[in-house]
Amino acid sequence: MPPSTNINLISRKGSLLQRGCWPLNISVGISLLRAAAIFYTGILFERAVNPCVYQLQTVVEKTHKDEHVVDNLHSNFRPPSAALASSGPSEIRIMEWENWPAIAYEQVGAALVTKGDSFFNRARELYFQQREQSNNNDNTQQHHQTLMDEFIEVPYEFVRYSYQSCIGIIALFFAVRQINPTLVVESGVNAGVSTYIIRAASPTAKIFAIDILDEPICGQGERWMDPSNSTINYTGKNFTDLLELDWKGMITKKEVDPNSTLVFLDDHLHAFNRIAGVMKFGIRHVVVEDNYKVGEGATANDKRSTPKQMFHGEMWKKEGDWLFRNIVAYSEFPPLVPPILAAAYTGERKKAGGFMVAADDNKDIVHPMLRPDLNGDDMKIYTHIANTLGYDPTLADFESYMQFMNYNQICYLELLPYPSTLS
Length: 423
What we know:
Blueprint: E1 7-11, H1 26-40, H2 52-62, H3 67-75, E2 82-84, E3 93-96, E4 103-105, H4 123-128, E5 131-134, E6 141-145, H5 147-152, H6 157-160, H7 166-179, E7 183-187, H8 193-201, E8 206-211, E9 231-235, H9 247-252, E10 261-265, H10 271-279, E11 285-288, H11 307-312, H12 317-325, E12 327-332, H13 376-389, H14 398-405, E13 411-415
Parallel strand pairs: 1-2, 7-8, 7-10, 8-9, 10-11
Antiparallel strand pairs: 1-3, 3-4, 5-6, 11-13, 12-13
Helix pairs in contact: 3-13, 7-8
């Protein structure tokens, strides 16, 4: 049975325990020893593994087998509890986890910040809890499936040949399912992977796909375009920027409901300005794909505009304080597995950031959904996911490593309602 991850936001004086068990197999032990060696010799990887970063920067600057085993594991899954508590108005609420060094503070100025509660905080529970599905033959409730089962059943061959990570699209698929938006506005299309995942997660939502280019960069071939009449492509010659859409007109005509609209930012532009920009139209839900840490980023805007930077960097404290006051919730999506699972990978860290390596201290990222390094059942689930998607669970090769370690703190923000008199 996978361990329950009991998460609390509590007073700094309090404590929180995540219950778990500790079976380690031989391969994990070897991985742990190897990771320890990497860490203690201080080897950090500094050169880029993705040459298309520089192409991306140029563009931005020019614009603005074992299914039965896993089924049994799912049937035994016990969801974690989530609660909010505080010992007094002057206390800083925090989120912490047993056997994980990070602490998330509900306060601007920390390397890891959280606010309120959101479905991202319950990612493990909601992705792995078992749900009954109707049997089409006799309409009885017999088939049990988790959301993760649904995700890994999405045809994945198209995704495999893009630079988009498995973790990024797991988070996007999850957000669309949990919010159930009537409209998803995707700023940054590139090869169309995110469009593909949005449509897989919601067959009925309208999609506005926005990209200044007609063709993807990074040598990703032909762009996938949704054949559905529910998608409008603001791309190439038809480009209209996210903030130049006729939001007021669409909302007045009730063509768009801002309360049920999700904006997905993957355009490497100024994230803070874009969040503030859509807020004035009453948009309530934003997901930022490239939520770089302070000092990281693939473009100039990436290095000075992400929510994580605004909340942590002293130079952006004014912006961070404003953003923190104007959101209901902020949370970062957890990696699927901890960086130590990549101990077998010997390549170099991406220079721009956004990749995890085994030597990371993990003090500024949230607790992973699965802990294969500590729990045998989690190892079985992780291995099943990796094998089903066609990747090596040891992450020794670049393709497998990129899919599971390309993690950029993708975040969800629930924005406060914007007064209509100020719109």
